[in-house]
Automatic annotation (TrEMBL):
Its EC number is 4.2.1.47. The lineage of its organism: Bacteria, Pseudomonadati, Pseudomonadota, Gammaproteobacteria, Alteromonadales. Catalyzes the conversion of GDP-D-mannose to GDP-4-dehydro-6-deoxy-D-mannose. It holds the Pfam family GDP_Man_Dehyd. It is an enzyme of class 4 (lyase). GO terms for biological process: 'de novo' GDP-L-fucose biosynthetic process. Keywords: Lyase, NADP. The gene is gmd. NCBIfam families: gmd. This is GDP-mannose 4,6-dehydratase. It catalyses: GDP-alpha-D-mannose = GDP-4-dehydro-alpha-D-rhamnose + H2O. InterPro entries: GDP_Man_deHydtase, NAD(P)-bd_dom, NAD(P)-bd_dom_sf. It comes from Salinimonas marina. Its cofactor is NADP(+). Residues 5-345 form the NAD(P)-binding domain. HAMAP family: GDP_Man_dehydratase.
Length: 371
C-alpha cells in the first residue's frame, strides 16, 4: 500500500486530494495546523478515529515554518509521495503579510525538500509542488504554457517562484522525483470564502435569501481561467505516476471576467443583473427575478458595488492557460466547465443560506462572517 503525505490537507485541494488518494487505496497522512477552533470542516467526512482498527487516514499537527516538526513527521511516515499544498495562498493577504508568506510558501517548500534529502529519502519519496499561474503575473505571452517567461506581481507569487525553482534544483541536484504543477485558478463549493468566486456565490446566495444586501468587489475587469478543483487534484496525482518528473500547466484554456462570473452566479439564483456606471462607480442592479430562490430581493435593488479596498497594489489583469502538454503527455483534460462549477457552487451556497434564513425566521440570531 502506497503512503502519501499532504501538507495543506485542511484546504480546498488537500481535502479533494485526500479523498481521491483514499479511493485509490493509499494510506493518507495530512499535516494540520493547531487552531483555537476545529479547522477540519473540509475533511470531517473522511476523518477516521485513530482508535479504529486499520485506519487509512492520519492527521499530524505541524507547520511549514517548523523544520524539526516536518522532519519528524516525514521520518515517521516514510511517504512514497509528498504533495506540498500548504501555503498562505491568498494573493491580497500576501501584500499585508509578505514576510510570513515568504516563510511558508518559499522556505516551507525548501524545508520539505531538505527534510526528504536529510532523511535519505530522495530516491524513494516523490514530491509534488503546488505552483501557480500567478508566476506569469504581468503576462509575457498568451496563452501561457510551460515555456512562457515568469513575471510575478505579488509577494505570494515571488515566494512561489522561489518554491518553483528550488523544486527544480532538488530534481537536478539530487535526482529527486520532484515536479511543479503550474495550476491556474481552480474553485469548488469548498473554496475559501474570501477568494473571488466563492465570495460571489456566497454573497449572491445570502442576498437572494435576504441575509445580506450588497456585495462589494474590487476589479471587475480581471480575466481568469477558472477550472474545478476536483479535475485539478486528479492531475496532481497523475504527475507523480510518470517515469520521469516534469512540470505541467493545468488550465481549461477558457477565460471569463469577474463581472461575467457575477452575472452567471446571479442567474443561477434566479436574478438577472444589469451593470451600470464605470470604474469605482460601477454597480449592478436587479432587472428581473425568476423562481423562488430570490425572495430577498426586488427589481431595482442595487446588489453589487465596487469598493477600492479590494484593489491590489499590483494586479494580474489576465491569465489564460494552455494545457496542451498535459493533454498530450498524460491524457488529462478538464471534465467540469466553469458554468457547471458555478451551478454547483451557487446551489451549495443557496442550501446554506436557506438554512440560515430558516433559523432567522424562527428567531435565532444569524451572523454572516465577512472580511
Ligand atoms: P487553501 O488556502 O484552501 O489551503 C491552504 C492550506 O495550507 C490549508 O490547509 C492551510 O491550513 C495550510 N497552511 C497555511 N499555512 C500553513 C502553514 N504555515 N503550515 C502548514 N500549513 C499551512 O489553498 P488551496 O487548497 O486552494 O490551494 C492549495 C495549494 O495550491 C496552495 O499552495 C496554493 O497556493 C496553490 N494553488 C492554488 C490554486 C487555486 O486556484 N486554488 C492555483 C494554483 C496554486 P488552514 O486550513 O489551517 O488554514
Ligand atoms: P487569485 O484569486 O488572486 O487569482 O489567486 P482571487 O479569487 O483572490 O482573485 C481573482 C481576481 O479577482 C479580483 N477581485 C477580487 N478578489 C478577491 N479575492 N476579492 C474581491 O473582492 C475581488 N474583486 C476582484 C482580484 O483582484 C483577482 O484579480 C488564486 C489563489 O488561489 C492563489 O493561491 C493561486 O495561486 C491563484 O489563484 C492561481
Amino acid at each position: 500500500m502506497k503512503k502519501a503525505l499532504i501538507t495543506g490537507v485542511t484546504g480546498q485541494d488537500g481535502s479533494y486530494l485526500a479523498e481521491f488518494l483514499l479511493e485509490k487505496g493509499y494510506e493518507v497522512h495530512g499535516i494540520k495546523r493547531r487552531a483555537s477552533l476545529f479547522n477540519t470542516e473540509r475533511i470531517d467526512h473522511i476523518y477516521e478515529d485513530p482508535h479504529n482498527e486499520n485506519p487509512k487516514f492520519f492527521l499530524h499537527y505541524g507547520d511549514l515554518t517548523d523544520s524539526s516538526n516536518l522532519t519528524r513527521i516525514i521520518s515517521e511516515v516514510q511517504p512514497d509521495e509528498v504533495y506540498n499544498l500548504g501555503a498562505q495562498s491568498h494573493v491580497a493577504v500576501s501584500f499585508e503579510a509578505p514576510e510570513y508568506t515568504a516563510d511558508v510558501d518559499a522556505m516551507g517548500t525548501l524545508r520539505m525538500l531538505e527534510a526528504i534529502r536529510f532523511l535519505g529519502l530522495e530516491k524513494k519519496t516523490r514530491f509534488y509542488q503546488a505552483s501557480t499561474s500567478e508566476l506569469y503575473g504581468l503576462v509575457q505571452e498568451t496563452p501561457q504554457k510551460e515555456t512562457t517567461p515568469f513575471y510575478p506581481r505579488s509577494p505570494y507569487a515571488v515566494a512561489k517562484m522561489y518554491a518553483y525553482w528550488i523544486t527544480i534544483n532538488y530534481r537536478e541536484s539530487y535526482g529527486m522525483y520532484a515536479c511543479n504543477g503550474i495550476l491556474f485558478n481552480h474553485e469548488s463549493p469548498r473554496r475559501g470564502e474570501t477568494f473571488v468566486t466563492r465570495k460571489i456565490t456566497r454573497a449572491i446566495a445570502n442576498i437572494a435569501q435576504g441575509l445580506e444586501s450588497c456585495l462589494f468587489l474590487g476589479n471587475l475587469d480581471v480575466l481568469r481561467d477558472w477550472g474545478h478543483a476536483k479535475d485539478y487534484v486528479r492531475m496532481q496525482w497523475m504527475m507523480l505516476q510518470q517515469e520521469n518528473p516534469e512540470d505541467f500547466v493545468i488550465a481549461t484554456s477558457k477565460q471569463i471576467s469577474v463581472r461575467e462570473f457575477v452575472t452567471m452566479s446571479a442567474k443561477e439564483a434566479g436574478i438577472t443583473l444589469e451593470f451600470i456606471g464605470e470604474g469605482v462607480k460601477e454597480q449592478a442592479r436587479v432587472t428581473a427575478i425568476e423562481g423562488n430562490d430570490a425572495s430577498g430581493v426586488q427589481v431595482g435593488d442595487v446588489i453589487v458595488k465596487v469598493d477600492p479596498r479590494y484593489f491590489r497594489p499590483a494586479e494580474v489583469e489576465t491569465l489564460l492557460g494552455d494545457p496542451t502538454k498535459a493533454k498530450e503527455k498524460l491524457g488529462w483534460v478538464p471534465e467540469i466547465t466553469v458554468e457547471e462549477m458555478c451551478t454547483e457552487m451557487v446551489a451549495s451556497d443557496l442550501d446554506k443560506a436557506k438554512r440560515h434564513a430558516l433559523l432567522k425566521h424562527h428567531g435565532y440570531s444569524v451572523a454572516v462572517a465577512k472580511e
